């Protein structure tokens, strides 16, 4: 477990504004902020061949003084920084004289994330929970393995990145990958 406190001075943010009909991309001084938080991790092996992992993190960001970024307020949240994020996984291992088998199940969670300095709603990703799973088969004494995976099992849609120019009513966002599955064969030389 770790905790932290930071006094962030002279925060620099990229801004997108319009002046005389021209797009102006600039780096402006956003002011000062206090950042407090913690991170904790836990690994437990409750029974043979089962490993459980969990982590949680909190980032409490507060502007305490504002610079000259248009639209920024003391309540604005930092770019691409969730307040809470957590991770959990369960790995099951099994083996016999002929093969080894691994099963992995993961959960990632994070609270909303803003993609721009002024927290424009159209480029905000809400709370997101993602589930993944993977099965791996490895014959004992061999150089190859075979895995099957399924990522973003619930096929969630969430913004992963974005760019906004509010004065033009323009925003561009990218989304996380949709549900994805596959098979991976590996050979170690």
How is this structure best described in words?
This protein has strands at residues 2-19, 22-47, 50-66, 84-95, 99-110, 113-114, 124-125, 128-139, 144-151, 159-165, 170-175, 180-187. The protein is mainly β. 11% of the residues are buried. It is elongated. The chain is 0% helix and 69% strand.
Derived structural class: mainly beta
Sheet with the most strands, sense and barrel status = 8 strands, antiparallel
Question: How far apart, in Å, are the first and last alpha carbons?
Answer: 39 Å
The chain-level mean pLDDT equals 90
Topology, element by element:
Elements: E1 2-19, E2 22-47, E3 50-66, E4 84-95, E5 99-110, E6 113-114, E7 124-125, E8 128-139, E9 144-151, E10 159-165, E11 170-175, E12 180-187
Antiparallel strand pairs: 1-2, 2-3, 3-4, 4-5, 5-8, 6-7, 8-9, 9-12, 10-11
Short structural description:
This protein has 189 residues and is mainly β. Helix content is 0%, strand content 69%.
Name its key features.
189 residues, mainly beta, elongated
